[in-house]
UniProtKB/TrEMBL annotation:
Organism: Holothuria leucospilota (Black long sea cucumber)
Gene Ontology molecular function: any one: [heparan sulfate]-glucosamine 3-sulfotransferase activity
Protein's recorded name: Heparan sulfate glucosamine 3-O-sulfotransferase 3A1
InterPro entries attached to this UniProt entry: NST/OST, P-loop_NTPase, Sulfotransferase_dom
Catalytic site: K42 (for sulfotransferase activity)
């Protein structure tokens, strides 16, 4: 009898399914995440995933994007969630990054119920005021047309920012999503109702900007995976990574083709006064200090 070529065996199934079959034969399987980067939005979550995906023991979503299961796609079911990730072998960890989970009140409880085993979380944080400005700028920049952008000035952006984050009585508007997302203590409290503090690694944005390799090593240690990143891999001011003889570069700098708002002394003081007690509470909850807590 004629031997059937392996490629022939797969001719009625997609290339993707054929590749998956080969991987399954080699011990790869579909799995729910072992580690979730829960946020916060605009605190450096993309750059962190860009590098971690090169680690041989990390598998991310197959489309390389945020999965948004526990906030937007929960009705699609857990099998759908599982199917969003690359197959992983027993030495690898499956990694989800969806910064909106951090502020989704129902997410911690859903995650605890739906994913068994000892999950680990990475929480990226940043000076709440600079996070707020980045979030404000970025949200509008992705929604707005080029014509709109060209008409913006620092003054018009400052006015728009104030309209968004201040109430009619010129107080900080707690329900503005920009303000709300930067109130780390309120959100983290919800996570601590369901998980132990030890399950979270906090990555601070300024520390990641000044010592990317150091922070990646913290992630490796926290996740119990082999040390992979070395100094010589990072080139062009950390924007590119040398991996298996190739150079991979990406731009993580948000689109700032129209002016940023100006945060004058008065507004900055209001924001700092608003966030200070919340930052202090966040320090207490996380058991570590941040340079921006008492600014
Ligand atoms: N190496 C490094 N370290 C720390 N932070 C960095 C790094 N590279 C980029 N960035 C900044 O990360 C900001 C975007 O954060 P996120 O990727 O979490 O944004 S998002 O929520 O996924 O949209 C975004 O901030 P802004 O530029 O202020 O908007 C990026 O500049």
């Amino acid at each position: 009898m004629k031997e059937v070529e392996p490629s022939f065996k797969f001719q009625n199934i997609s290339w993707d399914d054929a590749a998956k079959k080969i991987l399954r034969d080699e011990g790869y399987e579909s799995r729910l995440p072992d580690v979730i980067n829960i946020g916060a939005k605009k605190a450096g979550t993309t750059v962190l995933m860009f590098y971690l995906k090169f680690h041989p023991q990390i598998q991310i979503s197959s489309h390389g994007q945020e999965v948004h299961y526990f906030d937007w796609h929960y009705d699609k079911g857990i099998k759908w969630y599982e199917s969003q990730f690359n197959l992983a072998n027993k030495h690898q960890l499956v990694y989800d990054k969806t910064p909106r989970y951090f502020i989704t009140k129902s997410a911690p409880c859903k995650i605890r119920k739906d994913i068994s085993g000892k999950l680990r979380f990475i929480l990226c944080v940043r000076d709440p005021v600079s996070r707020l400005i980045s979030d404000f700028h970025f949200s509008k920049s992705i929604r707005s047309s080029r014509g709109w952008r060209q008409m913006q000035t620092a003054e018009s952006e400052t006015k728009r920012l104030k309209d968004e984050i201040l109430t009619a009585n010129f107080l900080i508007n707690e329900s503005s999503p920009y303000v709300y997302t930067s109130d780390y203590a309120t959100h983290f409290q919800e996570w601590l109702k369901e998980f132990d503090r030890e399950q979270f690694l906090i990555i601070e944005n300024d520390e990641m900007r000044s010592d990317l390799l150091g922070e990646l090593r913290k992630v490796e240690t926290f996740l119990g995976i082999d040390p992979y990143f070395t100094e010589d891999m990072f080139v062009q001011e950390n924007r590119c990574l040398k991996h298996e003889g190739e150079l991979f570069c990406s731009s993580f700098i948000s689109d700032k083709r129209f002016p940023l708002p100006t945060v004058d002394e008065g507004l900055e003081k209001m924001l700092r006064d608003y966030f200070r007690p919340r930052n202090e509470e966040f320090e207490r909850l996380t058991g570590r200090s941040y340079k921006w807590t008492n600014l």
